[in-house]
Write a sequence for this structure.
């Protein structure tokens, strides 16, 4: 049996949903281990587009799907996704960790207020309450899934929390009715209780007997520890987040697939050395339909940054690469790749930890001849030779084989190169 981890190597939006959808065909269980409904995965099957924010996209294939303890859950959004799948004739075989933390109404309000108060220094969050929920988790003031399925436990928990949080709410100008929250969340608890269980014991009971896939949300460069802090998410998309967010030993992960978009995009604030604010950026955004699944915000676009990609590949220890949206580069006369940075007259081939330095680096580019004819191709040998040269360059620089190449948004627009 085998376990596969799917991790994004950029600032999210790499196309992990489609990659997960492919690999999930060959597994028994798909697990989400971090993040919340600030993430979005889109899978296109025929003319039907499925958008996920919490439920692993393997649900489309009828697989067992698990939401691990490292995820923060908005129960309202979760129930909406369950209903969406059911309305499309898909029965959801879902298990939610009783240890997963719950996004409460005050988390959402606090998220919006904090972002507004930052003004020009705002992070660019989705304002979904993710950060405040994780903050409460670390401060040991959170509400967990196991609390909302037990009315007495929830009342006791909120009574204690409101004694501490009341002055905070007053400072923020937040008006919260505790009784209304209890009433609302107990109703959610009743609806999701059939799906709740101890996912840690469950996953460890099947890990040696079943094929399991772990699905990351966001991307490595948004990791709270390894990303472009403070312009990051509040959890750990890094492959190591699987151990903390799902309760699985690192020894149990057999293959790590890094998902890399053929160019770079980013949503929100923070440094992006290869961002193009001119014609190329507009071209990529329009042709790549670069608008967030969760927020609808236009993504910032630019050339592929191999300095950042090598950093992400190193920390995650990737075995294979899945390249997405190669078709978006069709028709360009030249394609550039950043292979180093210049800062203060010096050459850098490392991704700097300081956001101040990253803001001021100048990308050093290697230029490739452009190509046309990638879109819709299903065999590697049918790709233009110049596109194959680009793929080979990425593989060599990241010292990893190519598992698959996406040549369009639909499920069938995929080239499988190394599926083992």
């Amino acid at each position: 049996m085998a376990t596969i981890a799917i991790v994004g190597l950029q600032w999210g939006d790499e196309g992990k949903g489609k990659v997960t959808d492919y690999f999930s065909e060959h597994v028994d269980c798909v697990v989400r281990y971090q993040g919340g409904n600030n993430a979005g995965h889109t899978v296109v099957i025929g003319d039907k587009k499925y958008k996920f924010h919490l439920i692993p996209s393997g649900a489309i294939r009828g697989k067992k799907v698990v939401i691990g303890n490292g995820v923060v859950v908005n129960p309202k959004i979760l129930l909406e996704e369950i209903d969406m799948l059911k309305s499309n004739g898909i029965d959801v075989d879902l298990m939610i960790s009783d240890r997963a933390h719950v996004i409460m109404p005050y988390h959402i309000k606090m998220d919006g207020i904090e972002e507004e108060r930052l003004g020009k220094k705002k992070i660019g969050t989705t304002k979904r309450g993710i950060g405040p929920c994780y903050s409460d988790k670390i401060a040991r003031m959170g509400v967990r899934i196991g609390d909302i399925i037990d009315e007495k436990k929830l009342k006791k928990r909120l009574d204690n929390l409101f004694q501490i949080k009341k002055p905070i709410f007053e400072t923020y100008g937040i008006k919260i009715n505790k009784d209304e929250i209890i009433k609302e969340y107990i109703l959610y608890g009743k609806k999701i209780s059939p799906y709740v269980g101890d996912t840690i014991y469950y996953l460890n009971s099947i890990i040696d007997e079943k094929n399991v896939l772990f699905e990351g949300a966001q991307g490595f460069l948004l990791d709270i520890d390894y990303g472009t802090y403070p312009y990051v998410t509040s959890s750990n998309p890094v492959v190591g987040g699987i151990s903390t967010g799902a309760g699985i030993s690192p020894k149990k992960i057999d293959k790590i697939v890094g998902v890399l978009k053929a160019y770079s995009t980013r949503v929100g604030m923070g440094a992006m050395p290869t961002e193009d604010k001119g014609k190329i950026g507009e071209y990529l955004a329009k042709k790549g339909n670069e608008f967030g699944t969760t927020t609808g915000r236009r993504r910032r676009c630019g050339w592929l940054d191999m300095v950042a990609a090598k950093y992400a590949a190193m920390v995650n220890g990737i075995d294979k690469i899945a390249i997405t949206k190669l078709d978006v580069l069709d028709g360009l006369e030249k394609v550039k790749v950043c292979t180093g940075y210049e800062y203060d007259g010096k050459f850098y081939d490392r991704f700097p930890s300081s956001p101040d330095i990253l803001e001021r680096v100048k990308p050093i580019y290697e230029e490739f001849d452009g190509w046309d004819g990638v879109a819709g191709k299903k065999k590697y040998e049918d790709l233009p030779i110049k596109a194959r040269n680009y793929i080979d360059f990425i593989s060599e620089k990241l010292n990893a084989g190519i598992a698959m190449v996406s040549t369009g948004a639909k499920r069938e627009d995929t080239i499988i190169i190394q599926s083992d």
